[in-house]
Queue: 2 jobs
Job 1
Amino acid sequence: MPDLCNISFPGSDFASITLEFNKNLSEHLTIQNSPVLFGCRTGICGTCLIKIIGNIPPPEADEQEMLETLAPNNPYARLACQVHVTGNVEICRMEG
Ligand code: FES
């Protein structure tokens, strides 16, 4: 279990950042340090839809339901506001 998780944004101009294990992305990503935009931060607006590759827990039922609407059949799609990082991840924005 890593103490620190590396968050990188391939394909963007943003540098990688480091978060402590199990931190929620929406509490630490800002317009200054990441390409991810947030709206509601509660998993209902879909603004924060991302493609994420790395070791993170699977979505809860509510998030899964949203993902099936916003990005059906994309196993890497997640709502950034619902993600806790538990390993190194790569994040790209997705257009909803
Ligand atoms: S910010 Fe609204 S779903 Fe994540």
Job 2
Amino acid sequence: MKNPFCKPPFPYCYAPMADLTDPVFRRVLARLDYRGIHFTEMVSAEGLVRENLRTLRMTSTLETGAPQGIQLFGGKADVMAEAVRRVEGEGRFDFVNINMGCPKRKILQRNGGAYHLKDPEGTARWFATVRKAAQGTLTVKVRLGWEEENILTVARLLQEEGADALIVHFRLKDQPYRLPADWSWAERIKPLLRIPLWGNGDIDSPETARQRLSLGVDGVMIGRGTLREPRIFQSLQEVPLTPWEDLLAIIVEEVEREYSLEKKKRTTRLKALVRFLTSGRVEGRLMRRDLLVCEEYERIKTLFLGLPEGVITGPFLEKDENLC
Ligand SMILES: Cc1cc2nc3c(=O)[nH]c(=O)nc-3n(C[C@H](O)[C@H](O)[C@H](O)COP(=O)(O)O)c2cc1C
């Protein structure tokens, strides 16, 4: 498959999100006829190489014609190189994406995620080792910088070392979500690159997505906006929206399919989704209140299937500082 980030027929995709864009959510989007690029949530390169069962479960693929990629994080170049070799050897994914943006402490402690933004030259050498191991499309997702913006250097070096596309979340490592993503960087980064540049941050509607695309990026990645309204891609594809009640039923079906024997996980999964799905919707707090305190799966399922659609008028989540 050619590089799916380059001149894609559909220049919008969802963002990889830990514990959320899991196999359940990916199948839900596939059932909504999503035509964009699919991503796994971030997967530990180390876990993959060690064949950790929980890690391997995250890497299931879909039966879809759409491109699918795996996002890997890690700090050791040789381990990352081995993980990429294995992924490519299996041939199930169309590309690999390396996470160089996650600011979570447990990821930074392993020299992964945004840690790579600390020392651009060192990271370029690190990336060169991984690039040597990779035959196929190898892309990177970054933020604007560690403490200060160094994205222009990082972008140039990653391109020189053979990255096939760059996805930039327009925030610094520690910049909280309540401060807006700075899309003005798109026009500063784009002229430096021959490889595709995709932008990410704060897309809250199809209109914002289209407007951001018009800034000259090759594609737009949508994170929390997808969790809150998985049908955002249907709006962008200009096809009729799946009715809200059907969307909820599809989600429940996929959760039950994935966790047919794990009742506790079904509960956790629906609760995690509901926080995002109801955020910023009129009466959202009220909608999720009963469900979040409930522990009994059948009751949670009934409450979930009965959630009203609620018009979106507010911000994503009230407390979002710990997000990746
Ligand atoms: C719950 C959550 C989990 C995330 N997990 C990941 C991840 O696994 N890998 C990654 O590259 N970014 C992760 N992110 C960051 C998103 O991919 C995206 O860059 C960020 O949310 C900004 O986009 P948005 O404003 O459209 O949400 C996560 C974000 C959220 C909200």
